[in-house]
Design brief:
The protein is mainly α. The chain is built from four helices and no strands.
Length: 121
């Protein structure tokens, strides 16, 4: 799960950065405000890569997805991109858990096969 979720979060890092560049063209927004908000969001997307498997990591990832969709009020194309990344986040969590369960089953089967194999000396 960690690999899939981290890949999604790194993709979001770049999208947030590009959205910041687009937001800078809005004359009503101060450059410092745009980069403060974008910088915090970019930092969170990278920091979440390290805590995605810990308790609350997935919930924080969902909070980032909601914030990404909400950023569409500033950069309208982010409504679309936010929904796309929320779908990718769901898929990363859903299929990542299935992969982790399959890996655990295969590891248990391998351990069981090793314990039943007689040692030939």
């Amino acid at each position: 799960m960690r690999t899939l979720c981290s890949s999604t979060l790194i993709g979001e890092f770049f999208v947030i950065g590009f959205a910041g560049l687009v937001a800078m063209k809005d004359p009503d927004l101060a450059t410092s405000t745009v980069w403060t908000v974008s910088g915090i969001a970019m930092f969170l997307s990278v920091a979440l890569c390290g805590v995605v498997t810990r308790p609350g990591g997935i919930a924080l990832g969902w909070a980032l997805q909601i914030a990404l969709i909400a950023s569409g009020f500033v950069v309208p194309s982010m409504f679309f991109l936010g929904v796309i990344f929320a779908a990718l986040w769901w898929a990363s969590v859903h299929y990542g858990r299935k992969i982790d369960e399959a890996k655990a089953r295969f590891a248990a089967m391998a351990a069981q096969a090793d314990s039943t194999t007689p040692d030939v000396a």
